[in-house]
Amino acid sequence: MRVVVLDYGFGNVTSAVRALRRVGAAVELTADPVAVAEADGLVVPGVGAFAAVMEGLARVRGPQLIDRRLAGGRAVLGICVGLQVMFEWGDEHGAVTAGLGQWPGAVTRLRAPVVPHMGWSPVSPPAGTALFRGVEGERFYFVHSYAAQEFALTSANAGSFAAPPLVTWAEHGVPFVAAVENGALSATQFHPEKSGDAGAHLLENWIRTS
C-alpha cells in the first residue's frame, strides 16, 4: 500500500512514517497534491493546538485535499489532533476555531481531575469494528487535554444510503471519542505509532481494509 503522511508542519511525522513502514506500507512524507490524490491512503497527523493545526492544513490546502479524497472514497486516517479537526469546531482557551466539518460536534477540554490525559488506557470498540480487530482488549497511548465528548452522527442522520459510523470510546474523567470508523475516513485520538504492538496491529488493519 502506498501511503502519504501529510506534511504540513505539525504532527509526530517521524514516528508515524516509521510505524507505517514497520507494517509494510510504502510511505512518502509530502504535501504534494498529486501524491496525496494518488496514494492508496492518506495519514493526517496532528499534535498541539487545534487552531495551529488548522492553520498548517490551510497552508498546504489540506482541507481541499482531504475533501477530494473522501468524496472519491479514498482512505484517510487522522491521528490525535488529526481526529479532532474532523469535527465542526474546537474550543481551546475560549477561542473557537472551525474544523473540517466531516462530523458534527465540538472538541472541548476534558473535564477530569488531571489534565492532560497522558499514558496507556483501554478502549471500548463497537461490534463490527475493522480497525480494532484482534486488539479489542488492548491499551493505547494517549496524550491530550481536549477531546470530542459526544458524537452526534448516527443512523438517524447519516443519510439513507450511508452506514452509521462505528465509534470507539475511552474514559478520562468523562467518556470521550477514542476512534471513529466512517467509510473511507478513520481516525484515532490516541497515537497508534506510539502504542507498541497493538498500535502496529491497528495500522496493519487500516492498511488491509482501506
Task: Outline the structure in words.
With 210 residues, the protein is α/β, with parallel strands linked by helices. 26% of the residues lie in helices and 33% in strands. The chain has helices at residues 13-22, 33-38, 50-59, 62-71, 81-84, 196-209, and strands at 2-6, 26-30, 41-44, 75-79, 87-92, 95-98, 103-109, 117-122, 139-144, 146-147, 166-172, 174-182, 185-188. The strands form three sheets. It has a seven-stranded mixed sheet, sandwiched between helices. The protein has a four-stranded mixed sheet with strand order 6-5-7-10, covered by helices on one side. Strands 8-9 form a two-stranded antiparallel ribbon. The longest helix is centred in the C-terminal third of the chain and has 14 residues, at 196-209. The model has no long low-confidence stretch (mean pLDDT 94).
